[in-house]
Amino acid sequence: MKFFCLNAISPLDGRYEKINKKLKNIFSEYGFIKYRLFVEIYWLIYLSNITEIKELSPLSNFIKNYLKNIIVSFNLKDALKIKNIEKTTNHDLKAIIFFLEKKLKKIHCKKNIIEFIHFGCTSDDINNVAYALMLKDAKKNHIFKYWNKIIKKMDFLSTKYKKHVILSRTHGQPASPTTMGKEISNFSYRLKRQFRQLKNIKILGKFNGAVGNYNAHVIAYPNINWRMINKNFIQSLNISWNPYTTQIEPHDYISEFFSCIFRFNTILIDFSRDIWSYISLNYFTQKINLSDTGSSTMPHKINPIYFENSEGNLGISNALINHISSKLPISRWQRDLSDSTVLRNLGSIISYSIISYHYILLGLKKIDINKKFISKDLQKNWEILLEPLQTIMRKNSIKNSYEKVKNLFRGKKITSKIIKNFIETLNIPISEKNKLYNLTPFNYVGDAINLSKKIKLYKY
To answer: Which CATH number covers residue 397?
Structure first.
């Protein structure tokens, strides 16, 4: 571990720094500066192509390439220069504008070009688009990649364990059998729904000035269709345009975006707890790494630490999501700054989620089905066949079937022999009796095997 990691207050930059390393290029202060600089530069280039703005002639290819290269070559030294300028301006975005102005002065740009930096913009025009681009990149290059890995792993395990019959536990009590593959399929299907929903959530941007009315734009150039200009600019960045806002983009889509992640995470908390419980039941064993220590005092232990880590970090992520989802869509009148400090934590939310996804994948690599123990568990619980027994009786019009079975068997130790003796007394067709005679806790699984097989057919 690097020295600075040992001094980190947050585990995101300390203990878990390696897992989140790639997110730093997006959500760090450096990343936020870079994305905002990108928006300023591409807005200047876009403005220069508007023929009605006579005072700003089209930029030469040299200047365009020079501007684009500022982004391509942007590094920590550049970010530090901007932070030093901010000490004077006491305004983070104004520091970026001054940095860009200095860059253009170096190549002796005409004054009118420099004057059109940040033209018609309020700070949040730049900030909201930067955040939109950050979330777009995080979604594509990080969130979806992990979600896809988790779902594919679940689909693989669903197929692998499709015939591994286990005892269900409803209310914690022995219940009708299922297969481990089918139980994992349930989670895969739920996660796929969230994947599709997040894919369909539009990431929005606004670029309409100080209070959302293009006031400065219209006073300067009243004959330009600024709504269309801004719509086209936003869409050129591969995000969707929000036409109605105050000074700020209202963040409804961010609430939608993270609410979807919240649901995905909640499903994974459910999954982590179920796998933890199956390990506790001895339905899963964990692969032994001789160098690992499970307990500082009990040498025999192999703790399900990856699923516990996952559950804990998913909880932190969701707690933060709860706050931002209810806070961000609210702003007093046309603008207040209470959203600004909250928005700077978007990376923390995603980082805690990524840590969890990482540990779930590690945990799933470590488990193996414990066939021998599961078989013993099924063998001990023949009472689960009372459900099909009373169902067949009802089908064949035996009066009060459920009550008869309940009164006769509830609270008693049920064996294969006891059930077969009871079947012999029933006045039902021999074909129905044979069906019941052949039934065991190992084959009373309904359509679970086929359901496990078909989970891969559900696309996302």
So the answer is: 1.10.40.30
Alpha-helical regions (H) of 297-415: 305-327, 338-343, 346-366, 371-379, 386-395, 401-409
User: For 426-452, how does the pLDDT look when each residue is reduced to its tens digit (9 = 90+)?
Assistant: 999 999 999 999 999 999 999 999 999
Question: Do residues 55 and 156 both lie within one domain?
Answer: no
- Give the residue numbers spanning the domain of 225: 123-370
Q: What is the average pLDDT score of the chain?
A: 95
**Rounded to an integer, what distance in angstroms lies between the CA atom of residue 342 and that of residue 315?**
18
Of these residues, 171, 291, 397, 431, which one is catalytic?
171
CB 211 within 8 A of CB 247: yes
Spatial neighbors of 39 by CB under 8 A, at least 6 apart, are 125, 126, 129, 130, 133, 237
| 98 and 58 part of one domain | yes
Q: What is the pLDDT of residues 350-370, one digit of tens each?
A: 999 999 999 999 999 999 999
Q: How many domains, in total, are found in the chain?
A: 3
Count Cβ atoms within 10 A of the Cβ of residue 35 and give its class: 0-12 exposed, 13-18 middle, 19 or more buried. Answer: buried
The pTM is what? Answer: 0.94
What radius of gyration, in Å, describes the C-alpha atoms of the chain? 31
Residue in the structure block whose two tokens are 């009066």: 399
Residue 272 annotated in active site:
no
pLDDT band at residue 377 under the 50/70/90 scheme: very high
Contact 48, 69 (CB under 8 A): no
Catalytic residue among 10, 57, 60, 295: 295
Active-site annotation holds for 295: yes
User: Do residue 84 and residue 129 come from a single domain?
Assistant: no
Looking at the structure, tell me whether residues 389 and 364 fall in a common domain.
no
* Residue of 176, 188, 194, 166 whose CA lies nearest to 454: 188
Say if 27 falls within a structural domain: yes
Buried/exposed code over 209-234 (b: 16+ C-beta within 10 A; e: otherwise): bbebebeebeeebeebebeebbbebb
